[in-house]
Amino acid sequence: MTALWNEIPRHGKWLTALLLLVFIAAPLVVDRYLLSVLVLVLYFAYLGQAWNLLMGFAGQLSLGHALYLGLGAYTATTLWLLFGIGPWIGVFVAIAVAAAAGLIVGWLGWRFGVEGVYFALLTIAFAEFTRIGFDHLGLTGASGGLFLPVSPTAHDWWNLNGGVHLFYYVALILAIAATLLAAWLRQSPLGYRWLAVREDPEAAQAVGINVFRVRMIAMLISAGMTAVGGVFYGFYYRNLFPSQIFDISRSIELILGPIIGGLGTIFGPIVGAIILTPVGESLTTFMQSSGLNVPGAKSIFYGIILMIIISLRPSGVWPWLAKHLRLDRPKS
Hints:
Layout (H helix, E strand, L loop, with lengths): L1 H5 L3 H20 L2 H26 L8 H18 L3 H24 L5 H20 L10 E2 L16 H23 L2 H11 L1 H6 L4 H27 L1 E2 L1 H4 L2 H14 L6 H23 L6 H16 L4 H8 L8
Antiparallel strand pairs: 1-2
């Protein structure tokens, strides 16, 4: 981590520190609505980092990450409702449940040679099967949804029950922690193995890398991190519906940031979330204020942005931005 920081140009360090300071001070100067948008920016930046580890670093396309998001959300909220186990403890159970699901998906896929788009279809299928199961699971409200009561205690932070300021700083901590973890993993021996497997699995296997093992580790970490995002989602919105949390549109929503920002980069998921989330929320607000009801308009808008950026910047916005701001790492 220190080596990576030392390779960043001095003005890049100043820009990073300034951006961090802006995010820390934002609740002091913005209104509640803008703060809620920033919460979503940080939330998607965190989830983008989780997915980027699997796809950007290890090269494994998952279009069913809503599976781990939903399992994390339902596990923690159900523990809270039924047994009074708070989210700070329930999150560890949620991580274990989602990681176990990820290992099952990875084992079934990679042990039997399911690769590429077929592996992506497998991840979608698991998310869909789980959605159907929760639609009929009375313990969690089935298709009618699960609702968390709002405690009269306004600052019940130990149960993630508080105002938008609480969730903002939790999201900020999660986004920073995920970015630091991604930076550390990329420079670790495991990170280099992921990159080798991503570029050429056969060559990686030939030089002694256990391709199946490193892919499973990537899935384990990515699924566990996504589950943490699910816990945040469940306690932030305080309601869960299988048709929403497990839907493929939820998976697509969380992967757009890394794709737009730059796959396999550290700051790509953050840049993508900063670009995409405010624009999407502004569109939603405009349509609501105008009385327009166009089903799927947000998804269409996201698709248009994605096509434009892919056409103009195939590697994502962050590599182009880093080059023009001279933030890219110096070549040896």
